[in-house]
Design brief:
By secondary structure, this protein is α/β, with parallel strands linked by helices. It has eight helices and twelve strands. Helix 1 packs parallel to helix 8, helix 2 crosses helix 3 and helix 3 crosses helix 6. It binds 3-(4-hydroxy-3-methoxyphenyl)-2-propenoic acid (FER). 3-(4-hydroxy-3-methoxyphenyl)-2-propenoic acid binds next to helix 4.
C-alpha cells in the first residue's frame, strides 16, 4: 500500500491479527537509519504485536526502502512528518483503537519525537535502541563516526555503505531538543536496548527510561544494535508489555 506524505509515496504494509473483534490497537512500526520495513528485527516485532492482537502498520521512511525521496536528502524533520502522517493514517482506520508507536534506532528517536508531538493521540511508545544521541552528536560535530565543525557543517557527509548524506541532515538534527519531546509525552513507554550496542550507546536507552514518567527498561545482556544474539528476548519483552497494555 502507498501512503502519500506531501507528494512522497511511502510504501507501507498493514497487517491484521488473525482474530479481531471490534476496535483493535494499531502499532506504527518504524525502521532505522539505512533500514527498511522488512528487516529481521522489524518483522519479529511485528509478529510479537500480531500475537497480542495488535494490527501493525510498518513503512519505509523517506529516502529508505521502496519509498520516495533520496537517501542523501533525508532528515529527521522529514521522518518526523512521515511519522505524523503514518500515525494519522493508523488513527483513520475504521477498526483502530489505541495507537502505539514503535521504532528502532533512528526510527525509535522518530517515534519518541512523534509521541511528544501527538501525546494526546498516542497511547504507548516502544523505543528500541533509540538513537536519541543524534541531535546531541550533531551539535558536537560527530556523526557516523566522523568529526566536523558543527558551526560550519560540510555540504556532504559520508554515510555507511558508500552513501552520502546532505549536510542539512546535521543542520536540522542540531535543532532538535529531544528532552522537550520526552517531557511532553506522559503515556507508558517500553525501552529495549542491547548492552553491547555498537551504534547507539546503551546509556541512551537507560537515560530515556529514566526520564519518561511511566517507563520500563529491558536491557538485553550481550546483545548488539540489531539484536543478533537475543532477538527472542526483545520480542518477549515487547509482547509482554503490549499484552499488559491491552489488559488495562
Ligand atoms: C550515528 C549513529 C547511529 C548516526 C546515526 C545512527 C547519523 C543511527 C543508527 C540507526 O538508525 O540504526 O552517528 O548518524
Amino acid at each position: 500500500m502507498v501512503i502519500m506524505d506531501d507528494g512522497i509515496a511511502l510504501q507501507a504494509e498493514l497487517t491484521l491479527p488473525e482474530r479481531r473483534e471490534g476496535r483493535i490497537p494499531v502499532m506504527v512500526l518504524i525502521h532505522g537509519f539505512t533500514g527498511y520495513k522488512e528487516e529481521r528485527h522489524i518483522l519479529a516485532v511485528e509478529q510479537a504485536a500480531l500475537g497480542e492482537g495488535y494490527a501493525v502498520l510498518r513503512a519505509d521512511m523517506y529516502g529508505h526502502g521502496q519509498s520516495g525521496g533520496e537517501f542523501r536528502k533525508h532528515t529527521l524533520f522529514k521522518w518526523m512528518t512521515n511519522a505524523l502522517t503514518l500515525t494519522d493514517y493508523a488513527r483513520g482506520l475504521d477498526f483502530a483503537g489505541d495507537i502505539i508507536l514503535c521504532g528502532h534506532s533512528q526510527g525509535g528517536l522518530t517515534a519518541m519525537l512523534a509521541a511528544g508531538m501527538k501525546h494526546d493521540q498516542v497511547s504507548g511508545l516502544i523505543a528500541l535502541s533509540p538513537a536519541w544521541m543524534i541531535p546531541e552528536y550533531a551539535r558536537k560535530g560527530i556523526l557516523l563516526g566522523e568529526s566536523f565543525d558543527p558551526e560550519h557543517i560540510p555540504d556532504e557527509m559520508n554515510a555507511w555503505g558508500g552513501r552520502t548524506l546532505d549536510g542539512n541532515y546535521a543542520r536540522t538534527a542540531q535543532q532538535i531538543r529531544v528532552e522537550e519531546y520526552i517531557d511532553r509525552y506522559d503515556g507508558p513507554v517500553l525501552v529495549v536496548h542491547g548492552d553491547q550496542d555498537e551504534a547507539v550507546p546503551v546509556e541512551y536507552g537507560i537515560r530515556a527510561a529514566e526520564r519518561y514518567r511511566e517507563s520500563r527498561l529491558k536491557l538485553i545482556e550481550g546483545d548488539d544494535h540489531c539484536y543478533g544474539a537475543h532477538l527472542d528476548q526483545v520480542t518477549d519483552a515487547v509482547g509482554e508489555w503490549l499484552a499488559e497494555r491491552r489488559a488495562r
